[in-house]
Amino acid sequence: MMGSTASRGFSRRGLLVWCALLGSAIAIPARVWAALKRPTTAFGATALDQAFEELGSIPAVHEGIRFTTPDIAENGAVVPIKIEVDAQTLPNVTKVYVLVEKNPNPMVAAFYIPDDTDVYVVTRVKVAQTSSLFAVVEAEGKLFMQSK
């Protein structure tokens, strides 16, 4: 029986190894690509104005951004937020950022939006202490925001 498996040229174990290697080869470029796009300096900022500077400028307030979060969170470790963008008034959104004013590092999330996509982001963020939260949207190379 052992000779028949060897004569086929592979075993189940060998097939699993090849599948694992192929999966790793596909996953590594995705991780590298994501790391290159990550605004590392903005995530490392320790003040809100520094984070805005790292993103490029202080965003202008825009009514096309609907930013929803509780006025008072039950648990600061998991504060729910929702960001929606009206594509009619603010088209071609490429990025969405979430910043928390009094966190040790204000930038808490970055989302990259594919072309021709309706922007709808729902997540939870950690808020160190009661402070303003900002939804920042990049569209056509400019920054816009709403705060709560």
Features:
single chain, 148 residues, alpha+beta, 5-stranded mixed sheet, 3-stranded antiparallel sheet, 4 helices, 8 strands
Give a written overview of the molecule.
Helices cover 30% and strands 31% of the residues. The radius of gyration is 22 Å and the shape is globular. By secondary structure, it is α+β, with helices and mostly antiparallel strands.
Write a brief caption for the model:
The protein is of the alpha+beta class and 148 residues long.
Topology overview:
Elements: H1 2-7, H2 12-37, H3 40-44, H4 48-55, E1 60-61, E2 65-68, E3 79-85, E4 93-100, E5 107-112, E6 120-125, E7 133-139, E8 142-147
Parallel strand pairs: 1-8
Antiparallel strand pairs: 2-3, 3-6, 4-5, 4-7, 7-8
The CA-CA distance between the termini, in Å, is: 70 Å
Rg, Cα atoms, Å: 22 Å
Q: What is the tally of helical segments? A: 4
Q: How much of the residues is beta strand, in percent?
A: 25-35%
Pattern of helices and strands: HHHHEEEEEEEE
Average per-residue pLDDT, rounded, comes to 85
Task: Note the overall shape.
Answer: globular
